């Protein structure tokens, strides 16, 4: 649960601090930080995130961020 909370906190902080002038490198760094914490989350949390990604039409991100979900 802590890793999932950390991933969400990183996303919220990054989105809140982002300005139009930010570059792609910062975006990639933020996504990599999120992915590390999501990959460390338990399988039930990875499944929940995977289902949420499917729900918002971003199923391609499940594998891209390294989530391991067999039942999705």
Largest sheet: none
Mean of pLDDT: 82
Number of strands: 0
Poorly predicted runs of 5 or more residues: none
> What share of the residues does DSSP label as strand, in percent?
under 5%
Tertiary shape: globular
Number of helices: 4
Brief overview:
The protein has four helices and no strands.
Task: Characterise this structure.
With 72 residues, this protein is mostly helical. It has one domain. It contains 4 helices and no strands. Helix 1 runs antiparallel to helix 2. The radius of gyration is 12 Å and the shape is globular. The mean pLDDT is 82.
Essential attributes:
mainly alpha, 71% helix, 72 residues, globular, single chain, 0% strand
Topology, element by element:
Blueprint: H1 2-17, H2 24-40, H3 43-55, H4 60-64
Helix pairs in contact: 1-2
């Amino acid at each position: 649960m802590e890793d999932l909370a950390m991933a969400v906190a990183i996303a919220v902080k990054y989105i809140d601090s982002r300005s139009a002038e930010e570059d792609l490198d910062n975006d990639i760094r933020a996504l990599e930080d999120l992915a590390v914490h999501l990959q460390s989350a338990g399988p039930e949390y990875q499944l929940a995130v995977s289902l949420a990604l499917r729900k918002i039409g971003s199923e391609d991100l499940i594998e891209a961020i390294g989530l391991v979900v067999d039942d999705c």
